[in-house]
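MODEL INPUT / OUTPUT PAIR
PAIR INDEX: 1
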Amino acid sequence: MVGSQHEALHRIFQDHPAMFARAFRELNVPLDDPTEVVLLPTDLTEIRPLERRVDTLLRFTTPSGRFLLLVEAQGEVDPDKPSAWAYYLAHAHAKYRLPAVLLVVCHDRRTAEWAACPAEFGPSFWASLTMRPLVLGPDNVPVVTDPAVAAADVPLAALSAMTHAKDPCIDAILKSLAAALRGIDEEDAYVFAELTELGLGNSQAAEIWRHLMSLDPSFFRSETSQRLREEGEIKAVVRSILDILDARSIEVPPDAHLRITSCEDQDVLRAWLRRSATVPNAADLFVDDRHA
């Protein structure tokens, strides 16, 4: 099941596609600043019952032409991934008739080193296909510890925090990012704060980040921020309820799904969350619910 840390690693590129040109230059790959970036459907499934869904698929237009950029977030070594990536590249090229490039974003060196190794497909005497991704990870994403640098490029500072979560200097990276967020639009700051926390996962760095955010309560004290925070908390609980039921292979009928996703009462949602771990069916979530 795809987790929130995985989502954050590629979401930041969806929301801020201009980062790609800077990221590619870090990889010594010449890429002109795009004149247009289009988010394409990520479903690369064929008619056959085989689901293939890339994390992010973008169409770039530059002065030198168009190409597809496929972005995958990878949290650990997975021997099955190279064949899936090769499929994504081949199918995207066949579907859109454009050159395709794969970018893999990792948050630890071991995974990044593994992902960067070209994968060859075919018998030992003849490799008919070679899949060679570009990789962003701790070794090639800049360490942003200067608040001025972070303020000048908040998306890059957030990516720096995510990819260097296990680096000894993560404390300085997070402090510079926290300082930078105070100088941008409040709603944008909230989104970056949430994305950063998700991208840090269960690491010790996530605890440091939550502590930094709690040191200055006025940072997110306005009515707008309070509303956004409450909406984010509600969505997180709703997602947890549905994820737990899915993990337990409990079917959620459309009426139950609507009731869960439309509920805005946090007390009720928390009660449903507790029950979701033990109920035998979705209907029993709502039994003895005095507030529903």
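PAIR INDEX: 2
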Amino acid sequence: MGLSQSIEDYLKAIYVLQSEGKTATTTRIANALDVSSASVTNMLKRLAKMKLLDHESYKGAKLTPAGIKIALEVLRHHRLLELYLKEIMGYSWDEVHDEAENLEHHISEQFEDKIAELLNHPTHDPHGDPIPSKDGVMPEMAQLSIADAKENVSYIIGRVKDQDPELLRYLEKIGVIPGVKIKVLEKTPFNGPIKVELEAEKEQVLGQAVASEVYLVEE
């Protein structure tokens, strides 16, 4: 079944929302894709008729197994491309998201297989997001944000939200990148700044907006 780029984008966006534990509401989908709520409503009806999702007004959209399969294929293309662009072509990690968005719909399964083989079948992209396997198995994804982490517990940075290039450049500059050990030293009350310790006893102070975009796994 040949699907349009727009349909693939919708399925991917809904899957990402679901994987983050969020209800895929019309408003959230519209924000994720930068389209109008009316456009989302029309597309959800279309996708429901195609049996790619279930949708009830005011309850959000939920992908069917067929919809999940397609979303995982698109995500695999996207995240493999991000890693290929960074590791092989020398892109910085703040540049790869937009490039992968443009390319993900146009590569063949053979090209996907070649990239995976070249990169030794990776499980995570440059930002720490899991790469679905060829048969649709999704590796574990870091879910605990710095903002929600416990104080004085050792963690490892698992992933960083990848949509904001400016944020990625800032995080790389201060050393907050996947694989780095981190400990929350102090949380200021009333959603104030958070003091963290990185490797080599390097301290940084992060605002709530930044802390909520970085996710951890226990060491």
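PAIR 2 NOTE: Helices lie at 5-19, 26-33, 37-49, 65-87, 96-103, 109-118, 165-174, 208-211.
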